[in-house]
Specification:
Blueprint lengths: L5 H4 L16 E5 L14 E10 L2 E10 L8 E5 L5 E6 L1 E6 L2 E6 L11 E9 L11 E2 L2 E2 L31 E3 L13 E4 L8 E5 L9 E6 L7 E5 L9 E9 L8 E7 L7 E7 L2 E6 L4 E3 L4 H4 L11 E7 L6 E5 L2 E2 L30 E6 L5 E11 L6
Antiparallel strand pairs: 1-2, 2-3, 3-8, 4-7, 4-9, 5-8, 6-7, 9-10, 11-25, 12-15, 13-14, 14-25, 15-24, 16-21, 16-25, 17-18, 17-24, 18-19, 19-20, 21-22, 22-23
Length: 394
Amino acid sequence: MRTLVPRLRHRSWVLAVLAGFSVVGLLLAGFVAAPVSSAAADSGCRVDYTVNQWSGGYTAAIKVTNLGPPVTSWRLTWTYGGDQQVTSAWNATASQSGKAVTVTDAGWNGALATGGSADFGVQGTYQSANPTPSDFAVNGVSCGGATAPTDPGTPTTTPPTTPPPSSGCGGAVICTGFEDQSGTTPSGAWQFTAPDCQGTGTVTVDTSVAHSGGKSIRVDGKAGYCNHAFVATTADLSSVGPVYIRMWVRHTTALPAGHVAFVSMPDSSQGGKALRIGGQNGALQWNREIDDATLPAQSPAGVAQSAPLPTGSWQCLRFMVDTSNGHLDTWLGDQQIPGLHQDGVPTADIDQQWLSRTTAPRPTGLRLGWESYGGGDDTLWFDDVAVGSAPIGC
């Protein structure tokens, strides 16, 4: 990618956000059997509330499921226990009075059949605490788990849970903490490379900073186009599918407004051009070199469904590329990032640009480093990298 879209080059939304997010949302379930004289009679509900937060701010991805009779509209309420303040919402309308929050459907997602659900989210700020609320109610009827009465004649079951992927490498094609590196220059299974062009950026083996063991890969990334600096695996990933990648990364400077990339995968479906992961407008994104498409779209709504990459600490990043249908997934820690999730279902202002190309990616390699297309220096470390065809946990 040589330049930003002109209308974005001079405009930045520094929105930190969403999280994303592996399937670790808080499950709050309840059933109501007592007669109610409103339209919500005998209804029940479930709310999944998945929060992603950073210093002073947060986003929450929320899914409300109707367990009772069909409804034509819904209103979800809860009370915050901290000093949270909702500032915006998507796919719904939100208002707040004191600690009480009220969210109503967006019209097009108001009708819920029995078992039907609606997904939306909120963004907000906090100063001292951001506890997860627990007093959810839909159309005035509690979804409050243990506090909600249960029909004694209706058997209840515990929703099945999927165990998190193992943090071990198992049968991964790549599994390294770079402990086998000798000297300061990458060697053996990892080699320095500068796709397209080389500048002053450098890649070294570092023995002073590591996530585990005593070594990591350090990248001193420099701003400006043609300053590419990466370490590339010599392993051929062309037979791996789907592709699951787990890495620990630490960096020093917040993602800039301009586009940068720190993961680059040669992609045979693009004739060798790169499938890239990096950031823009302060948040994480996917980028496809062949047509410069981004996921999410770089609109306010799109950026709001991504998340920043925290600085000054080790972060576990996990990615999935489905080589059969083109679906993508991204997790920061154990939380899925909604804006970097692509399941083939179009979402306005999020993935329409990405879905314009229907050919599934076919990564053949992995490069870790730094390239920018304008401003943006950064120093990064990579450690405990694994690639395989099954999920690899943190």
